[in-house]
Every structure is written in structure tokens, then in C-alpha cells.
Amino acid sequence: MKEITNSMLQRFLKYVTFDTESVDDNTTVPTSEGQFTFARYLESELSAMGLTEITLDDKGYLYATLPANCDKEIPVIGFISHLDTSPDMSGKDVRPRVVTSYDGGDITLCEKDGIVLTVKDFPEVAAYKGQDLIVTDGHTLLGADDKAGIAEIISAVAYLQAHPEIEHGKVRIAFNPDEEIGRGAHNFNVPLFGCDWAYTVDGGAEGELEFENFNAGSALFTIQGRNVHPGYAKDKMLNALRVATAIVETIPAAESPEQTEGYEGFYHLMSINGGVDQAEVSYIIRDHDKQIFEKRLAYMNEVADKMNAIYGEGVVTVEVKRQYANMREKVEPMMHIIELARKAMEEAGVTPLIKPIRGGTDGAQLSFMGLPCPNMFAGGINFHSRYEFVSLQVMEKAMMTIVKIIEGAAKL
Fold first, then answer.
1. Do the strands 208-210 and 353-354 form a parallel or antiparallel pair, or are they unpaired?
2. Is residue 84 annotated as part of the catalytic site, yes or no?
3. How distant is the alpha carbon of residue 410 from its chain centre?
4. I want to staple 225 with a disulfide (CB 3.0 to 4.6 A). Which of 78, 189, 201, 240 is the partner?
5. pLDDT (tens digit, 9 = 90+) per residue, 10-29?
């Protein structure tokens, strides 16, 4: 086990050196060349390991197979992680460092620039006392989201290759681009993947197992004002920014991300742009409950109508879009796949933490594309930030959870 774990660490330390930041404004697939560079590297690694049916398509989606080692009728299951890192912070020139046997105190990431991961600001780090933590130098994110997942999946395959006594069916793995900007599943070839079900290995803390996510939508209010010289504006000017402010004041602040948790949905103000003549107000809308979600979408139209009743017909228009849906309705008829993962975690020494995702996942879109796909932990903490870290011991448990899922599937 020690050799496999050390190999996983070396894999991860290599993977995070690839600059794979996705770019929301780009229309290419993938949206950054670094993702393709990383995919080609993984393609070579999987080939060297002897995997079969390796396919890297022209959009940067990489698929491979660990063949079955027995003749039993066993469901084909898959494991998926994403190649890209978040554009929220630079992923270029990542310089990881391993803090061995973490002492439970503050971790200085960059002494020169005074960047410190403090227990006061991030109290969860103290729970990892005694473990080996991989951190940044404070100038980039780490990329555990989701290169930890990739390292864990490949290391689980290596573990099974080293232990042929563990019977298993055909296992498919896939690594996709552009998850961080919501496009990861858009070009995923579900028929080619050919699985009965799969798991994204893209969660956070140890034990996370998620098969519920937000229903997601967006609303973009466009406000047409009327600009005249302010010295002569009496009864003439219509300031689009004031209308924008009225929209924000109308939508309940108590139903914002900073005021909600658990299953509570929200309206999240993303941006206000423009000037006196024209302005835009952008929201994203989230709720786990489908009926409440539909009411939230309808409410955006009601707000526009209310503004037009006050300021004049046609002053405010709103474009409401649906983005993705709660995968629960697709996973719930197959709850044995959750039970399989839960049992696998326990066998790997992990306490399952089954909870809803307050966000989205490629698995949500894939579930509605015909591939039921819950999400399990990869171990990273403080994603998308300079304070991101991951425990090597938690990565090992994630790897063993994958092994136990594959082993358990052969016994269904």
C-alpha cells in the first residue's frame, strides 16, 4: 500500500504542474490548450499501464478501460474526473509542497509575502493534525479540484492491477475538460463510455457522497433608461442604475447564498453593469426542490413586471434560463449504487457523509443524459483558492473507496 500511495502522491505532484485553467470566454473545446496537453500526457500514462480502448477525441475527452479479470456477469461501472482548474484563481506555475505530519497549527505558504493558512480563518485544517498535507505556495490554487480525483482513479486502477486476486468486471474511466465553467458534460460521449452507471470523483472532504444537487437557472435583467443632461433632467431622466437598485432591493436578501444552507435555495446577485442609459443585473437561481425552483424562475418575471408597472412598459426585460437539474430523480430509482458506495467507504475506513450538493456537478448533466452518476469525495479543501489543500491520507482513502466499489460491484 505504501508504494501505491507514494506513486499516487508523485502522480498528483506532476499533474498540478499542468496549467489547465478553463476560460469561460473561449468557444473552443477545450477552452484552453493546457487541458489538451494534460490529456495527452494522461493518454500516454494509461497506455503505458496497459489499459485498453483508450480514446482521446478532438475535444479533449479521454476514455479508457481496465478489462474484466473474470467471466462473471458484472455491471460496467465508470469513474470520471475533470482536467481543468477553476478560472477563479491562476493555476499556472503551481508549486506544491508537502507538509509532513502536520502539527495542527498555522501553515506559512509564503513567508516572503506573508501568506498564511491560519487555523483562525480555516478552522477545518486543524482536523488534519498528524496527516501529510499538500499545499500551495500561496500564489496559485493547488488543483486538487480535480487532479486529486484523477490521481485517485488512476492509482485505484494500478492497485487492482497489482492485486489480480480481486475479481472485477470491466471498468471505464474518463477525464473531461471544462467542468469548472459548466461545460464538462456537453460533449461527453455516453454511448462510447458504455457504463451502467458511474461516479464523478470530484467532491471535497472525506466521506462526501452526493446524489442531490441544485436545480439551476439564471436571470438577466436588461434595463433601458433615458439619459439627459443632469442639469435639465427633471421629469425626463430615467436612471437605469436606480432601476437596477430597485430590482436588487425587491429580491429578498434573506434568500441569498450568504443567508442560506442545507436544502435552502437562493437568488445570487452576480453582477450589476452599465450606466444611466442602460444597465444589466445578473442573477443565478438555485433550489433543490423542483416546484420551488419553478416558482423562483417565475418570480424573476414577476419582478420585471413590477418594475415596468412602476417605471414604464418595456423599461425592464428579463431573460430566464434553465441550466441543469437535480440528479436525484435519475439516481433515486437506482439507490443500490449509493448503497454500494456507502458500503465501500465503510470498508475503506471512511464514515459516509451523504448530503446534498450546494452547487452542480458534471454528474447531474450526465444523469439526465442516461448515465446515473453520483459524486464522491476526492479530498480537497478550500477549492479555487490559494489556501487549497488536500491530505494524502484522505486521497488514499478515496483511492481505496474506488477499489472497494469496483470489488463490491462484482458481488452484486
1. parallel
2. yes
3. 29
4. 240
5. 999 999 999 999 999 999 99
30 preceded by a cis bond (ω within 30 of 0): yes
Question: Which residue has 454500494 as its cell numbers?
Answer: 340
Q: What is the CA radius of gyration of the chain?
A: 24
DSSP H or E segment with residue 13: helix 2-15
Which residues fall within 8 angstroms of residue 297, CB to CB, at 6 or more apart?
Answer: 217, 219, 285, 320, 322
Residues 193 and 371: their CA atoms lie apart, in Å, by: 9
The three cell numbers of residue 160 are 487492482
Of the residues 84, 180, 206, 208, only one is catalytic, namely 84
Helix (H) or strand (E) run with residue 320 in it: strand 316-324
Distances (CA, A) of 300 to 215, 272, 396: 15, 16, 46
Cell of 51: 489499459
Point out the catalytic residue in the list 132, 137, 179, 396: 179
What value, to the nearest 5°, has the Cα angle with vertex 211 and ends 339 and 268?
Answer: 160
